[in-house]
Amino acid sequence: MLDRVQGMIEKLKYLNRKILEIDKKQSLLVEKEELLEKNLEQRVEKVIVSVDQMKQFTEQCADRLFEQFSERAVLGKVNDYVNLEYFKVPSDKSPKVLLVGFYGAVNLGDELMLQKLYRDLNVIKNDIYVMMCDNENLDAFRYPGMNIIHYPKTKFDFNHLADIFDSVIFGGGAILDDSGYLQEESFKYDLGKIFIELALSFIEKNKEVHAIGLSTNEKIVNEEYQEKLKRIIDGSVNFSVRDKYSKRLIESACGHEITMINDIVLTNEYPKVMKEKGEKYKIGIIWICQADLLGSLEKLVEHIQSTYDIEKTEIHFIPFYNYHDCDYKFYNEFCEKKSEFNFSIESMAYSFENICQKVRECDVVISMRYHGALLGLMNGCRTFSLLYTQHPHYYNKMMDLYEKFECVQDLFFSVEELVEALPVKNDVVINSVDFDNTSYTQIVQSIIKKQKERKEKMDF
User: CB under 8 Å to 197, separation ≥6 — which residues?
Assistant: First the structure.
């Protein structure tokens, strides 16, 4: 009996030890839980602090951005009155010439006029500044040593330019254009508006204005534009147009007799050479690369594919106006869709000699662009044109051009008429036309003489 009691006591002691061990373990678990809870709370507090810091930082960034935008807004307002670019023009007394046109786009016709006139102005080139349109892709290395500024940014720029320059030359182009005259801020980009306001600013300050070989829209209807144009014609040292239709229009609208000269590109000397016949019949196409004219080009090419021997015919697309690579993109997309034919896309020509060489390699040229047609005809190449009737500039200059070369029959108003007239082989010889460029030469020489007189007077 005593042994049984002793055994039970031992079991109770064992159970008591186990209970104590369990209590101890439970206490340890509680301590661990409390420690984990404390650590978790600390981490949560850190996250909350980090979130608050991030929120504060974000608010600071937002405030700073708002300040910057506000500063830019203020700067934009300041730029309504100040164009910092023009302050780089030296304020010394050296007489300066401003040459203005649709330069820098790059439209090859306007570039050729710029090159010829700039070269012909036999004065100190550092005294000439060329005003170009905005083109962030312009390769300035193509104009070595040339002083370049851009179109006005503010209305106050016009008077400022008339202050710092002694004369302004508008060197060729269809810039007698009232279509954008009333549009908001057109003074920043529309050459028709820029011409009117800039020429008047120079005249009011008794500075020289020379308008050389310009042309007009088919019509000028804005009465205010007409009145300002009259004042410019009266106040200009030289004012001339390049086609008889523009001459008649201005004379009728403004009541002034207007001088007509040849297009500036036609004043280039060029060799009158006969083209040697090659193995393949080469058709050069200079198109106006716009979506609304894609269908007309497709009809033209489809006609060529169905009419000409594909194995013996090549179509050469010649880029002419390549602002932001527009011509290249247009021709590339077209050629990808018509890959079965023998196409090639020429590189962009940047000089008179280069484009003449490309044109002379063709048996026939089909050009929608005015200067493309002019260059084809200059080089004795049979040149067909589709008149872009939707553009107000084109009728006057294209009609006059084809009349000068006595081949109006090669100028068409629809692509259907054009394809019917295309010869399978061209045996027509374009008559060589010798142009009298005396008037242009006299105008340029008078500008040179006056500039040199101003220079000598300053030096004296």
Answer: 155, 158, 187
* 112-135 burial: b if 16+ Cβ within 10 Å, else e: bbbbbbbebbebeeebbbbbbbee
| Single-letter amino acid code for the residue at 231 | R
Architecture per CATH, 92-268+439-459? 3-Layer(aba) Sandwich (3.40)
Helix (H, G, I), strand (E, B) or coil at 85: helix
CA-to-CA distance for 148 and 145, rounded, in angstroms?
9
Which ranges of 89-222 does DSSP label H, i.e. alpha helix? Answer: 108-120, 157-164, 191-204
Distances (CA, A) of 345 to 21, 305, 336, 351: 93, 17, 12, 17
Alpha helices, H only, 121-243: 157-164, 191-204, 223-235
Please state the domain extents for the chain: 1-81, 92-268+439-459, 281-421
231 exposure class (CB count in 10 Å sphere: 0-12, 13-18, 19+): middle
pTM, two decimal places: 0.81
Same fold, 92-268+439-459 and 281-421: yes
**Residues 218 and 399: beta-carbon distance below 8 Å:** no
In this structure, CATH architecture of domain 281-421: 3-Layer(aba) Sandwich (3.40)
> Could you give the CA distance from residue 178 to residue 196 in angstroms, rounded to a whole number?
9
How are strands ordered across the β-sheet holding 128-132?
147-150, 128-132, 97-100, 167-176, 208-216, 238-241, 259-260
3-class SS at 79?
coil
Q: For the segment 35-90, what is each residue's pLDDT rounded down to a tens digit?
A: 777 777 777 777 776 777 777 766 666 666 555 555 555 555 545 666 778 877 87
pLDDT value at residue 436: 93
Q: Confidence band (pLDDT; 50, 70, 90) for 326?
A: very high
Q: What is the pLDDT of residue 455?
A: 86
Give the CA distances from residue 168 to residues 91, 183, 263, in Å, rounded to whole numbers and listed in that order. Answer: 17, 24, 19
**Beta-carbon neighbour count of residue 178 at 10 Å?**
23
The reported pLDDT for the residue numbered 349 is: 94
Helix axes 370-378, 352-360, angle to 10 degrees: 70
